[in-house]
Design goal:
It contains seven helices and 28 strands. It has 410 residues and is an alpha/beta fold. Helix 1 packs parallel to helix 6.
Amino acid sequence: MPEFFNVKPPRCALEGLLSRLKIDTRSELVPTTEALGRVTTGDIISSEQLPAFPRSSMDGYSVRAKDTFGATESLPAYLEVSGEVLMGASPEVRVRPGYAAIAYTGGLLGEGADAVVMIEHTNRVNDKTVEIVRPVAPGENVIQQGEDIGTRDTVLKKGHQIRPQDIGALMALGITEIAVAARPRVAIVSTGDELVSPEMTPSPGQIRDINTYTIAAAVTQAGGVPVPIGLVQDDYDAQREAALTGLTNSDILVFSAGSSVSSRDMTAQVLDAIGKPGILTHGIAHKPGKPTVIALIDNKPAFGLPGNPVSAFVVFGILVRPTIHSLMGYKMPLRSSTVVARLSRNVSSMTGREDHVPVNLYEQDDVLIAEPVFGKSNLIYTLVRSEGVVVVPLDSGGLYSGDEVTVTLY
């Protein structure tokens, strides 16, 4: 097999995959109440308008605005109270010239009224009369019919990730079911003769499988459906069978512990042999995770992630997560939550390599501090003890204590 270990910057490696990937997003109908985090597969159009009727935005009195013109505290306008418009009821009160009707926030105005005077700008003289001490303009303190959204307006565009406020907006229009992208299925294969399942007690030289569960959780968080294939020994035929099973039952294939350049690692050989075009990248200019494998097998993405848990987790975030999002039809890249902090220690690096450094955060003298959490990439608690990562760019030889850095939160 030819040597593939010609490293590429992570972004170039990802773009090389996505540019060749033909995305055919599957659509499915789901209840709106279950659509949080899902992605729309078409524009959602309103069939009605909101509000459906003019509504008061304040507690007060619905009036004809012209009856309040010139009103001041020293020379108030006096209006006769003709009644009140009850919440959830049609108005049975008519506001004629010289009259006002009690209005409630979110409720209808009295018939004939075109504005609402805030209750703070009124004084009740008696049961029949109210004193207005500040004028209102037509439409003031009123939410007009269709002001929020109109009939045939686009509620949500295609490729939009559903948020809690979107669910509320859809429900307000009576849209209780929407078409969203099906969740990509991600097959997960952990390889290595030394691996045993977590419920077992490892013998000397053995370790419990971590990556299957870390990657499965990351897949779920990214919006996909994890499909664990199981533990596979360092055997070509066994890995090939696992890869074929994973590809048959999923949209993406992820191997872990399958990216070493050692002779015992068969992942690159397997991924290059079971479909076309095969391996696109073997090696990324990144720490941790340099020996990562990226392949495209009959239009299904496949990844060989490092076996070390930290490396596997970080590389998943920069390569696999955006691939899942692409298959779900995201029109805009999802932005991770970030904070700006001061670096507490120097961080060394090498020019030409992008480093992701785990950091912990704390406050000192009202300044947010990012403390690097150094540790080998096979130590999972390096991630547990950190809150996010700082990226050292390709063209940088490192970062200095006191530098202002952007921390991408997990």
